[in-house]
Write a structure and sequence with these properties.
Blueprint lengths: L5 E8 L5 H7 L4 E7 L7 H11 L7 H14 L1
Antiparallel strand pairs: 1-2
Helix pairs in contact: 2-3
Amino acid sequence: MGEIKKIAVEHYPAERLPEDLLRAVGGAGPVRITVERETLPATAEAVAISKFQGAGKGCYLEDEVVGVIRTLREES
């Protein structure tokens, strides 16, 4: 049997989420959680994402990550 690459949980209680995710979803009601395994190429995008993952600040908006990636591309 192969490795599971994506799972989804329906009707997960939002109050059981980690604090950063709870703030991001507004903290009310059930949520649907989807988790996917990522395979990242060794590119500027991967470097930017790893910086965010290691920053210890919690969740980031897509626009924030895209901004960092654009900055890295401009530096290249």
